[in-house]
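Researcher: Please predict.
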Amino acid sequence: AELLKEPGRAVEAWRRVLAMEPTSREAIRALARLSARTHRYGELLELSSRELELVHDPRRQVQILERCGEIAELHLGDPNMAAEFYRRALAIDPGSLPSLRALGHLYRSLGRYPDLTEMHRGEMQTLSSPERIERLLHELAEVHLRHLKMPSEAAQDLREILKRRPGSVPALDALARLLRSTGPATELCTV
């Protein structure tokens, strides 16, 4: 109880335990909690990475990597490091929505649109929901058109939606607008 009131003493006590038992998950977790409580995020990241080495459950590994990504982005201000943690989490679980969303947000904010399109393409491989796939294809079309200035790729994304759902009014409208603004009118006939 006395150590709880004095985090500095508690940290030193747990560090001694960890020095004697380097693989003690209890010591690592206790130090991680204290590091978070005292806003020592660099140490928290190091402890989380250390815990990651001891964990063999893929779901837990993904959780730790996602936590590391949050720490790197929100507390250390390092979006590139955060992106690397999320990429590692996705290498274990390609369908992890928290990692996909966080990485997508980071790629957008960093202007890394080629990486964003690659990530979305990979995400589509893991999805079974036609609605989610269609939404991603719309996003891809927007990124290709507005950010990468690749109207032919945007048209291809919209055509992919129409191949999957021929009567998609939003895709037909977007493709018609795109072709009117960029290409010969004869291309409209290939819709």
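Model: The two ends are 71 Å apart (CA to CA).
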